[in-house]
Fold this protein.
Amino acid sequence: MGDASVLTGSPAPSGPAGTHATGPTSDVLPMVVGPTSLAPEVLGCLASQPPPLDDQGYMADVAAGLARLRDLVQAPSAASFIVPGTGTSGLESLAISLLEPGVPVLVASTGMWGDRWRDICIRNGIPAVSPAAGPGQPPDPDLMERLVEHHGCQAVLITHTDSSSGVRTDPAPLAAMAVRHGALSLVDGIAAAGSEVISQADWRVDAYLTGAPKALGAPAGVIGVTLSPRATETLLTRSWTPHGYSLDLRPWLPVMAATERGEFGYFQTPASALTLAFAEALRLALAEGRHARVERHVRLREALHAGLAGLGFRFLVQDGAVRSNGITVCWLPDTAEPAPFLRAVVRAGVQVQAGTHPAAASRTFRIGHHGNVSADDIDRTLAALRAAKAEVAVR
Ligand SMILES: *Cc1c(COP(=O)(O)O)cnc(C)c1O
């Protein structure tokens, strides 16, 4: 980090899939949920002087990024935003910008991220109904519909893929249900964008939140938001004043629109280097091809899961049809304690991560296999897990 040799360092890995070989500090392969490794082209965006914010070239690059974001999530008539912030600030931004205090929302939680979104809502005075799905289970659409009806919910909040459980939720039926009840649908796609099929307009999703440092392979610090015409209308006509100021999306709306016309607008100083890096990561993702990129992740996931099953690992998500393409959560081997097991995997050359699911953290571990990950990375991961399992078994 900050080491100039990283920027000029290793040669470009072969093909858009890349590898983790450019890691700055060690030879350990990070198979983590995020931050994921950056392609050389994305790294390059971080090493230039900040442009004046009304520079025509800079504004054109941001405008291209905004258009690519619409393309990635398949929402041609969405209002597109690239704004400073972490994923968490994005969850809060959607909540305070679009949700009216005092009116309930339904959170279809599948792990820690839905739980966090629920807590963000509650702290901002938005009551949240949030039935806990069992660890590794997707939300039950019938139960969700009954709750939306019973509580008169103004919105349904969905985690596309939850990185604590590895569950992928299909946003389409929940968004359609929201439409039936006159509610908005908001989707946390932070861990999904770049590895999962997204079809925002067809699904009738009102707000899709795209993260940078997960499957898209961009540096943390900016987020993407795409709002349907219905959500944009809510933003413009809402009758309440949000509790927050800096996270409000409304003042960004004319700024983004101006940028797309090649004109300057200001709300807050954008994170220009991070914005350019994000726009470049989007370019690479679209150059690989939306379908081809998802297919690559499916192939790698299938290879990983076949290998894990062969080694005797058990999955938190039982149903193969709702497993994330980019994140896998497994139960630890019976005999293993989390920390010694993770250390044994590192000794074998790969870093995987501790569990974070609220109900299963101490008995699970997580593998991130999204972004610039190759088939070779999957093989190395399986070899390291085999070695670590053998090591903890003999103790
Ligand atoms: C990582 C993640 C977040 C939070 O992102 P931060 O940048 O760490 O705040 C939110 N939702 C999901 C699904 C994530 O995977």
Summary: The pocket of pyridoxal-5'-phosphate is lined by residues 34, 86-88, 113, 159, 162-163, 188, 190-191, 211, 214, 220 (CB under 6 Å). The two ends are 37 Å apart (CA to CA).
